[in-house]
Amino acid sequence: IGEDGQKVSDSDFRGRYLLVFFGFTHCPDVCPMTLQRIADALEAAPELKDKVTPLLISVDPERDTPAAMKEYVAYFGPAFRGLTGTPDEIAAVLKAYGVYAKKVKLEGSALDYTVDHSSFIYLLGPDGRFITLFDPQQDSAALAARLKETVK
Ligand code: NI
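Above: the input entities. Below: the C-alpha cells describing the complete assembly.
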C-alpha cells in the first residue's frame, strides 16, 4: 500500500532500478542511518537519481500507516517511496525477499515493542529482476561507487 493508500505492485516500478530496504519508522538507529546513506549516495551521483528509486517497505505494518510512511520517507528526500500493507501482505513480501523481522516486546517503554530485522539493501533492475545485495554498513561513497558500476 502506497503513501496515499493506493495499491502498489512491483510492476508499477518497471523501467527503474529499485533500491529496496526493509525497516520501520520507529527504528532508532539502523533504518534512519541506512536510509540516510542511500540518500547521500544518490545525492553524490546525480546521474543515478534519474534511474534509481529508493524504496522502504515496512516490517511494522501495525504502526506504519501509509501516512506515517509518507511523512517518514520524505525526511530522506523526495525520491523516496514508502510502502506498507496489511500484516498478511507484509508477511508475504518479507517471505519473498527472505527478510527476517521479529517483534520484540520492550518492557517499561512507551514504544511497547521494537522490530528486529535484517537490513540488506536489495537492488532490482528495470525489468524487476534481482541484481544484487548491498551491505547496509558501507558508507555512502562506497554505495554510490557500487551503484555506478551496476546502474546503466
Ligand atoms: Ni531498523
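Note for the figure: The chain has a mean pLDDT of 95.
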